[in-house]
Amino acid sequence: MSLPAPAFRQTSPTGTSQAATGEQQPIARMVQQIQQHEVTPLQLVEQSLARAGKYQDQFRAFIKLTPDLARKQAEEVSRLLAQGRNLPLAGVPFAVKDLYDVAGTATTAGSRALADNRATEDCTAVRKLVRAGAICLGKLNMHECAYGFTGENEAFGNCRNPWNPERIAGGSSSGSAVAVALDICPLTLGSDTGGSIRQPSALCGLTGLKPTYGRVSRSGVIPLSWTMDHVGPMVRSAADAARVLHVLAGHDPRDEATTRRAVPDYLAQMDPAVRGRRIGLPRKWFFDSLTPEVAQAVEVAIELFREAGCTVEDVELPLMDEVLGAHRAIIFPEASSYYQPLVRKKADSISPGILSLLQAGSFFPATDYLKALRVRRVVRAKWAEVFRKVDCLITPTTPMTATAFGQETAALPGGDKPLVRAYLDLTLPFNLSGHPAISVPCGISADNLPIGLQIVGRPFEEGTILQLAGHWQQQTDWHQRRPPAAG
User: Fold this and answer.
1) Contacts of 147 (CB under 8 A, 6+ apart)
2) Alpha-carbon distance 335 to 354, whole Å?
């Protein structure tokens, strides 16, 4: 049985379709154009640099562009292709959240205090992308020290949402979302400790993948909470995410958390036939307090999977209250531990709100931290029992769309909620547990703002969530919608 037509807007007179002028092609098509000499890597770079310059003053996506590096890398890609090299990301422009080391540039973590923190080598993730033929455009804006969810930044300017510049872009990977949403480049890298890939992807209408903890190396990426940090791609589609994850994934001796498990062919796992997949809906907690438009959009998506032959059943994830407390008891002391030397030396260069957070972690008792680590072990074991019954979970990514700058509370059907809780309660549980999760666009609200759907899988089974995300995107065009500013 089909649900009635959703009340939220199906088409947007102010949004743009896939045929929008200046839009980035899917990564596979872009690589094909390069290989068939329809366009050169340098031409793609120049187009991306021009768009970055066009939008910088209004949207503040970048902290630093690296045009000389990008042009040099473009020439190298052309040289390697002429020699017959197989480069899976040949000529694809990308940019990275300014937590990632890029040789010869400062890695600031969005803070004045790290303005002189110049990298001497590329981090593992950047090195892998460059070896695959991708071309680095520069460093992206972010919430300072990755310790926030709005993208507001005193040092480098606030990132603004391309769908409405008066709304937040999300965070902390705010510039990473804005750059893809504005078609500056088809790929960015973000980091996710409580939802910082998935939440801005949802608010800006993108596909954002948080892989399993340990699937992708974080070596050369400034940490916030080393036992919960994940790095991953922000792109237009699940197919693009699969292509990029295949390049990024794998063991790295520089990151002891990375797994030695073999890296599968994620694209090959994206079989469009999803019949028989078992989907769990953790309605308690994850569906308790959603705006009507978000609730309706997610229910439409669930019905599509049901009609495709998936089995859908309600499930319950136990220990959710304990999850929130454990996340807090881990992130605060781990962040303070890493940033303690910087706080001692350059406190005046850190914005007051972030400084308070970094100092607060020093007051958490060690016993609370150790208890939280124990809670995580129990949570993983209990949730493994749930995942024996289902292949994945589906939830909203956020309970509402992007809010205005300066807003501190969310008015939700279940009552007012602090904004930090509203935006992170549905994503941070899977940072504590380490499960892979992807956010994909699933609708646009009446005021023309994107809505996100979250799909969560078993550890190291990214192929399953990519398959389901890919099926959704074959049946809908939400991921192809562009914000008005991107025209």
Assistant:
1) 172, 224, 335, 354, 357, 358
2) 11
Q: What is the percent of the chain where pLDDT is above 70?
A: 95
Torsion of the alpha carbons at 168, 119, 106 and 258, rounded to the nearest 10: 10
CA separation for the pair 184, 28 (Å, rounded): 17
- Asked whether 297 and 8 are in contact (CB, 8 A), the reply is yes
User: For 27-486, which CATH superfamily applies?
Assistant: Amidase signature (AS) domain (3.90.1300.10)
Please tell me the distance from the alpha carbon of residue 322 to that of residue 272, in angstroms, as a whole number.
37
DSSP conformation class of 18: T
Residue in 12, 97, 217, 336 annotated catalytic: 97
Q: Residue ranges per domain, the chain?
A: 27-486
Distance of CA 72 to the CA centre of its chain: 28
pLDDT at 17 over 50: no
Owner of token pair 């029992």: 385
Please, are residues 391 and 278 in contact by the beta-carbon 8 Å criterion?
A: yes
Helix (H, G, I), strand (E, B), or coil: what is residue 326? helix
Q: In Å, how far are 129, 300, 376, 425 from 320, measured between CA atoms?
A: 37, 26, 11, 10
User: Could you tell me the CA-to-CA distances from 278 to 270, 302, 308 in Å, in that order?
Assistant: 16, 12, 11
Whether pLDDT at 425 is above 70: yes
Catalytic residue list contains 345: no
- One-letter identity of residue 91: G
Q: Which amino acid is at 311?
A: T
Look at residue 482 and give its three-state secondary structure: strand
**The residue to which tokens 């300072």 are assigned:** 144
Phi, psi of 321 (to 5 degrees): -65, -40
446 SS3 class: coil
CA–CA separation, 74 and 92 (whole Å):
9
Q: Tell me if residue 174 is catalytic.
A: no
What average pLDDT does range 58-63 have in this prediction?
A: 99
Res 272: pLDDT: 85
Phi (first) and psi of residue 419, to 5 degrees:
-60, -40
pLDDT at 23: 65
Give the predicted TM-score (pTM) of the model.
0.95
Cis preceding-peptide flag for 191 (omega within 30 of 0): no
DSSP 476: -
Of the residues 12, 174, 191, 196, only one is catalytic, namely 196
Residues 14 and 485: their CA atoms lie apart, in Å, by 9
Give me the catalytic one of 172, 237, 433, 445.
172
Look-up of token digits 């499960």: 435
**Residue 394 neighbours by CB under 8 Å, 6+ apart:** 279, 280, 281, 298, 301, 302, 305, 453, 454, 455, 456
| Segment 155-180 mean pLDDT | 99
Q: Is 210 a catalytic residue?
A: no
